[in-house]
Amino acid sequence: MSVCPCCLEVLTPALLGLGGRRLAGSCGLCGDEVCQHCLRSGSPDVEVLFQNAGPEGTKTARASRRQACASCLWDALVARGGTPSFPEPSGRRRRAAQADCTHPQALRWMRCCPSCGLELEWEAEHGNPRCDACGAPSHEAFNACWACGESFEEENEAQDSAEGYALDFDCRSRGCEGRVAWLMPYCPWCATAQRWRPSKEEGAPACVGCEAKLEPTWAFCTACGEEAPLPEECFSCAALLDQVDCAARCEHCRRMVCGDCFGDYSLPEPPSPVQPGVKKGASPGARELLLCTVCAEELGARPLVEEEPPEPEEPEPPAAARPAPSSPWEVLGVAPGTPLAEVKRVYLALITQYHPDKVAQLGPKLQALAAEETRKLNQAWSELRQRADRGSA
Fold first, then answer.
1. What pTM did the predictor assign?
2. Disulfide: which of 184, 223, 228, 337 matches 146 by Cβ 3.0-4.6 Å?
């Protein structure tokens, strides 16, 4: 499912102009195409941002429009010592983590870093060729690309190793005697897709996207980059994670713990360039981290508590102030006294827009909205038709 790279919100279609989230344009600084909620243009902050960047700092042809994503605008405001008036975009933090990540847990054949989810690029060894279809490093003895399955129209015999390429597992295709590496999505000899099963370790999760086996500390699948599913138990107290109110990944040890075993803490350390800025409630020079209780005790972190004042409850308006129900003429959008034949034509045109077949692919909230509109239209048409019958009697 596609998401906006800036806010990481799922892109959804709109129903009759109501709601929805779509890609609206490219940022003139980073080049990412973001949704309409993250694309900023015309404000004084955006103008200053492009004046400071200059023509050399732009990366896309749309830079002349002077539009930037919320992540780039956030970075610019913080660099100038300002305080952004909007929440920090979720994609900005992931982008910063990927830029600073050294991929310490990444092993050969991992397509994505298990820490930050960034897709890794492996260089070909010993002057070996690359796949013409996807550019993945290959080997002259392979019959097909291990990454995309493209055939090389070769008939080489399967081998157990190939000059630095680890080939440690039997191909799952019947009749193929090839040996493949752990996370190869395709066999390099017969091009059969490899569907990896969960680890033999009890309780180890498996990727829901490609079924590759995962380690409990990995935040992303190393084969396809999908966010890793939850382990069965909390690492700290062994509570079942599917039965707790919430769960999170400790930013220090990277393990999943339940809501009773993690919290927001501040460390008395200067923030690094890629960490979020100093937040309200933290001491000067401190940075906020989500830590499990074990790591918080080891690091000497202090709990960070931010209490928000409760929102005042709005009193229910008196009966006189409540809006009167719409008349059937207003519901159908026709003037009072319109001939019944014309009213029927308008009713049929409106009711077709909310037909269940047209909203079946939308979310439950939008389907409920369409059902309510259908009910109002049917009620209005029934009332006007009954009025016409009584008038002709």
1. 0.52
2. 184
